[in-house]
Amino acid sequence: MAGAVSTTFVTSGPPAIILRFVTGVTLARVYPTGMKMMAAWFDKGRGLAIGVLVGALTVGSASPHLIRGVGGIGQPDIVLYGTAALAGLGGLLVLAYEDGPNQPETAPFDLGALRRIVTDRGVVLANTGYFGHMWELYAVWTWIPVYLAASFATAGVANPEQLAALLAFGTIAIGGVGAWLVGSAADRWGRSTVTTLSMVISGSACLLAGVVYGSALVVVAPFVMIWGFFIVAYSAQFSAAVSELADESYVGSALTLQTAIGFLITIGSIQLIPVVQDAVGWQWAFVPLVVGPLVGSAVMLWLRRLPEAGSLTGGRG
After folding, report:
1. What is the pLDDT of residues 11-64, one digit of tens each?
2. Does 303 fall in a domain?
3. Which residue of 42, 105, 128, 306 is 20 to 30 Å from 282, comparing CA positions?
4. Is 13 part of a structural domain of the chain?
5. What pTM, to 2 d.p., does this model score?
6. Are 137 and 40 in contact (CB under 8 A)?
7. CA-CA distance, 220 to 86, in Å (whole number)?
8. d(Cα 190, Cα 126) in Å, to the nearest integer?
9. What does the pLDDT look like over 162-179, one tens digit per residue?
């Protein structure tokens, strides 16, 4: 909603920056709370349930690109008003929520919980996997429209900006399907297996983006759709893992800490991409992001070999 306020009343930089800060703060109060709410309703099938939640987040994150693609090119007011309306609708729907049967008692504020979270080996490894994932995810989501527009312009495609906006929507939104399907797979095959496989695929795409850059639409479109499917498909499984590994009394705090640090990391990777682009061009701009999936895969394979893996997915790791 802050975006709509900014469009209507703000005419200079500082107030707009303040409103964007408020947007970030309020969003931070939605995501971890939503995961805890979902975990309260699902014990079995928790990976699928949180996967559906993250899938909804993913489609919502993609929606501004759709609004821009169908009529918002050069019209930022339309994009901001449309996005704010969708956010308002979501807020109204939440009013119908009721606590689930697995809702833990609200624990009092306890600084000691932070110490227990950061010294719990299983939680630390699951969080590190998530941090590697976040190093890649939001940098790709932020810059994929620009990469696509540059690629289409290089290939001589007509209307590259509009086509890039529509394909960026598809690239991000298809991750919602991925989160649902991979969530179901993780409940059957184990979280460590599914997250590792998905990170190998998405990390490889960071390198292959340079190979397909400037190619025909029939090459670029399937590539980025596969990348978009896997880059977020496993995101929910790190949260599900923490909900299984952390003590019940501070699951909410553990999820909040995971999310807060994860989003803080995205600041670095988002800012890094244009610096790399200035040096090597859009063709190879995503290469530094491969570090995240590499680290994430390594720690999840490590977790899989530890006794703590017995708490994941009913013992499936």
Report:
1. 777 887 888 788 777 776 777 677 777 777 877 776 677 777 777 777 777 778
2. yes
3. 128
4. no
5. 0.80
6. no
7. 30
8. 13
9. 899 889 989 998 988 888
